[in-house]
Write a structure and sequence with these properties.
Blueprint: H1 3-20, H2 24-27, H3 34-45, H4 48-55, H5 61-66, H6 80-104
Helix pairs in contact: 1-6, 3-6
């Protein structure tokens, strides 16, 4: 497995924390799977079907239906790899949230 992809996901997670302020305390408030759902939306956007929809300037109805927050927070880049890196970082955030929740029980 290539380290480059994992390093990019780790760097994106760090950017989310430092640049956006999405700290562990913030993430811990999302107990209903919102982080995983947001990751799924970015992963879908990173797929060929999702990209084709965005290329036509259409908002895929599935992404609109499942995006867990206000639509203005959804920021696809139009670059499949970049959107998949965002998805990976959000998955990491959800796994870390689950790990913290398990320790506190």
């Amino acid at each position: 497995m290539g380290d480059h992809a994992l390093k990019d996901i780790a760097a994106e997670r760090q950017r989310q924390i430092e640049g956006e302020g999405w700290t562990s305390e913030h993430d811990d408030k999302h107990r209903s799977g919102q982080l995983a759902t947001a990751a799924a939306v970015y992963a879908l956007t990173g797929s060929s079907a999702g990209r084709a929809s965005w290329d036509r300037g259409q908002e895929p109805s599935l992404t609109e239906q499942i995006w867990p927050w206000d639509w203005s927070w959804f920021k696809p880049t139009g670059n499949a790899r970049r959107d998949l890196v965002k998805a990976g970082a959000l998955i990491v955030a959800e796994i870390e949230r689950l790990d913290r929740a398990a320790v506190s029980q």
